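Researcher: I'm preparing a figure for a lab meeting and need a structural model of a single chain. I don't have an experimental structure, so a prediction will have to do for now. The sequence is pasted below. Please return the structure as tokens so I can convert it later.
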Amino acid sequence: MRELLGNLKIQIPEQLYVKDPDSSDLGRRIVEHSIILIDELGFECFTFKKLGAAIGSPESTIYRYFENKHKLLLYLISWYWAWLEYKVAFATANVSSYEDQLKNSIGVICETVKQDQNFSHVNEEILQRIVISESSKTFLTKEIDQENKNGYFRNYKNLIERLVQIIGGINPSFKQPRTLASTLLESNHLQKFFGVHMPSITDIEMKDENLIYFMETLTLSILSHGTKRS
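Model: Understood. Here is the structure written out token by token.
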């Protein structure tokens, strides 16, 4: 399984790019340095002109790969969700208990990411910080309905559905599995963000084990309560 994950190609919706950045060295450098710059500058201050200067290439070459910086951000976030789904798949493979599958999944989702050497042009540790601070900007837009129809959020939905299958295995009668799965993902982001920027409104103290314990307890408690109600 680990060898399989090491050889996988992350699948991104083709609508997000003009030319697949994974198809060339320049494209991979665009991805690599865009992650670094967005983390350093913030998405609002990030521009293709600055990215071009960072990679030593004309700004115009970046437009050969991405229509605009919004599409580039969508690409990066989509890449992260696909990668995280593979991590969850690996963590739950050959685990017979659905409850243990859920705990393993929560551990993967909530842990502070370390760089995956299988993808040298993507620093997942930095990318996780971007997902935490910038991912909401990909869907809190006026274009969300059309972009959703275009399949831009397919990888996010795939991860949600993987969690839904596990939740259904624990409690088949639970009626809000997608609500619970998406709440788990987004609450994880918020608590990590609060831990860095607004620590007075969270108790995780920037410790993965605190957040994992909270999410496990909350999720399993909800599922247990749902069983009692049914």
